[in-house]
Amino acid sequence: MSSVFTGYVADLADRRIYPGEIICKDGVITEIRELERVPEGSLYYLPGLTDAHVHVESSMMTPANFAKVAVTHGVVSAVSDPHEIVLPHLFRPQTAQERKPHLFP
Ligand SMILES: [Zn+2]
Description:
The chain is mostly beta strands. It has two domains: 1-47, no CATH class; 48-100, no CATH class. It contains two helices and six strands, in the order βββββαβα. The chain has helices at residues 63-71, 96-99, and strands at residues 2-11, 16-25, 28-34, 43-45, 49-54, 75-80. The strands form two sheets. The protein has a four-stranded mixed beta sheet with strand order 3-2-1-4, with no helix packed on it. Strands 5-6 form a two-stranded parallel ribbon. The longest helix is centred in the middle third of the chain and has 9 residues, at 63-71.
């Protein structure tokens, strides 16, 4: 199935927005064509955002729920920094006092 979306296309690489149409086939973009004009009030089409550093655990959500929320804000990929994740069944987290008792007389 093919679909054509007409509107303003944001080209971040070339730092411009131009009137165009996006051609999709079976859910995949196959071509983007520049047009001379589009109807007034047309939509703007932007590429998805990549969050280059995120702590999913700080959101207090599961990764699946985090993704459901993030995608509504244009985030289509994320690089997760998991250093705050604690797996209590593998080890028990320690307080700073437990790890360095000599610093806490
Ligand atoms: Zn980090």
